Q: What sequence folds into this?
């Protein structure tokens, strides 16, 4: 078990797979060597495609690439600013609806992670 107030879960929810590849490559340059990418679907896609009653609400949800990619990585606190800067450089400010979101959560205990992170 690894326990540290210095450890965070970095979550990046990105719509453009080309940007995901660039982020992962950039993470390596920053020393972030472990990440998991999950291919998922957003709320707007599910509601408008899978629940016919809500099909009329399609215009309220951003369209475009239907896939959403979630990048998960356990990082040290000192890596967060550089990771956010890299993501902004690749993705822009993510202010447009449907482009993505990035945030961190504190991690109090980790099993199965190398001590050096």
A:
């Amino acid at each position: 078990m690894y326990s540290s107030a210095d450890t965070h879960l970095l979550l990046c929810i990105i719509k453009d797979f080309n940007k995901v590849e660039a982020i992962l490559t950039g993470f390596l340059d920053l020393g972030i060597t472990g990440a998991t990418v999950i291919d998922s679907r957003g709320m707007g896609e599910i509601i408008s495609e899978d629940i016919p009653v809500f099909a009329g609400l399609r215009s309220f949800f951003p369209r475009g690439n239907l896939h959403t990619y979630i990048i998960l990585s356990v990082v040290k606190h000192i890596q967060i600013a550089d990771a956010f800067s890299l993501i902004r450089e690749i993705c822009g400010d993510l202010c447009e609806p449907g482009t993505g979101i990035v945030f961190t959560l504190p991690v109090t205990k980790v099993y199965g992670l190398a001590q050096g992170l």
